[in-house]
Specification:
This protein has ten helices and five strands. The protein is of the alpha+beta class and 426 residues long. It has a five-stranded antiparallel sheet with strand order 3-2-1-5-4, covered by helices on one side.
């Protein structure tokens, strides 16, 4: 029965692995197509400065996000993070319509570009969990999206020109007019609206940087290691973007330097997301190995196992709950009845079972998704330590019983010999 169950489990694991690989291949193929279309369309742009160099950079942007998204999708198929990251690349390829000399295509491309900026903020805050972890983050994204939508609605309706965008979007004096303008307002109105957009973007990006920095200071070492590369790369992005908005227009000679700086720091963000995921997984695997080594040969109580796992992963809030068949529920390490959290984004629950029967659960920081393999290793290590502790306890109890039995038998034999000697004397 156990062999059949294991075979079914291995088959299911193989199928899941094949599905992951298929999804990754499809995403990569779509990314290659999106990159090719982006490079082809931008390189032929009649309005962009240095269209060929811009096409290469934009192609690299699409490729980097799609590649990181495909990797994440493959490693963590049950997480939303992979599709979200890959979506950045695909959405940006659509924004390349702003390389067109046609007014309508250019206008649509710029609207999509503004959408990409807000969407990037959402994706960055979803990292590494795959969703927004706090009400503050959700409120910020909603406010950022709403303010951007209002400003852009006014720009599209009133301004004859659109905001210049970043160094790889700026078309200088060759930009087509706003094809969706409804009211023929003055140029001063358009300039004021463009300034309003820059102010909204700057304030929002600074707040976003503060939120990312706060996540990078999380108490759990696992999340810190995942977030730190992104925090460093994004803060560099913020500094470059703000300088470009306010220094670039005043000093046109700096445009070339800003293009290079913007290209480097922008492409560093998806790389930082990839590095953060790898650092988190390597740290977790290393911590689990050290945990097993530290526990080798020790007699552990459930409280000891909970403390050691929490210490290894830097998650002081980690909780180990054991299944109590008498109560038909879980108890904590002190034996008190424990109710598992339901629909709590800040906590993840990993179940430990054997042959379909519950043994224990771990309630922990969800920085590493359940599909990454790390939580499975954490659960397996917990089960191993608990089983080892139980077996060691049984072995010691068995040895104690053997010693006690041998001692009683020795005393009985001594008593028999003594009684026999007394009878012979009589």
């Amino acid at each position: 029965m156990g062999t059949a169950t294991a075979s079914v489990g291995r088959l299911e694991w193989t199928r899941r692995g094949q599905l992951r690989a298929l999804v990754a291949v499809v995403v990569v193929a779509a990314g290659i197509a999106a990159t090719a279309l982006t490079v082809w369309g931008v390189a032929r742009s009649p309005i962009l400065e240095s269209p060929v160099a811009t096409a290469v950079w934009r192609g690299a942007f699409v490729t980097s996000y799609v590649a990181v998204g495909a990797y994440t999708w493959w490693r963590r198929a049950e997480s939303r993070l992979g599709p979200l990251v890959a979506g950045v690349g695909f959405l940006y390829s659509v924004a390349s319509l702003n390389a067109s000399g046609a007014s309508l295509a250019y206008t649509i491309g710029m609207v999509v570009w503004a959408t990409v900026i807000v969407y990037l903020a959402y994706v960055y805050l979803c990292f590494p969990l795959g969703w927004l972890a706090s009400g503050l983050e959700r409120a910020f994204v909603a406010a950022y999206a709403a303010s951007t939508a209002v400003v852009w609605a006014l720009i599209l309706g009133l301004s004859p020109t659109l905001p210049p965008g970043g160094p790889f979007t700026n078309c200088g004096t060759r930009c087509p007019h706003n094809a969706l303008q409804i009211v023929d307002a003055s140029a001063a109105t358009g300039s004021a609206l463009n300034v309003a957009f820059n102010v909204v973007s700057t304030i929002s990006l600074i707040v976003l940087a503060m939120l990312i920095f706060n996540k990078a200071r999380a108490s759990a070492s696992l999340r810190r290691r995942s977030m730190t590369p992104l925090a460093v790369a994004f803060i560099a992005n913020i500094v470059e973007f703000v300088l470009f908005l306010f220094v670039g227009p005043a000093y046109p000679a700096t445009q070339g330097g800003f293009r290079i700086a913007d290209g480097l720091v922008t492409l560093a963000v998806p790389v930082a997301m990839l590095v953060g995921q790898i650092r988190g997984e390597v740290f977790a695997a290393k911590s689990l190995g050290q945990l097993a080594l530290r526990a080798s040969g020790e007699r552990l109580r459930p409280a000891d196992v909970q403390a050691m796992i929490g210490d290894a992963l830097g998650d002081s809030s980690l909780v180990l709950a054991l299944w109590d068949p008498d109560r038909a529920g879980y108890v904590d390490v002190d034996g008190a009845t424990l109710t598992l959290p339901r629909d709590v984004p800040a906590r993840a629950v990993t179940s430990i079972t054997r042959d379909g029967h519950p043994l224990a659960v771990l309630i922990h920081d969800p920085a590493v998704d359940t599909d990454s393999g790390v939580v499975e290793g954490l659960a397996a290590t917990s089960l191993l330590l608990l089983e080892n502790s139980r077996l060691v306890g049984q072995l010691r109890a068995s040895r104690a019983r053997l010693v006690d039995t041998a001692d009683r038998e020795r005393r009985r034999i001594e008593q028999d010999l003594h009684d026999g000697a007394q009878q012979r004397r009589v």
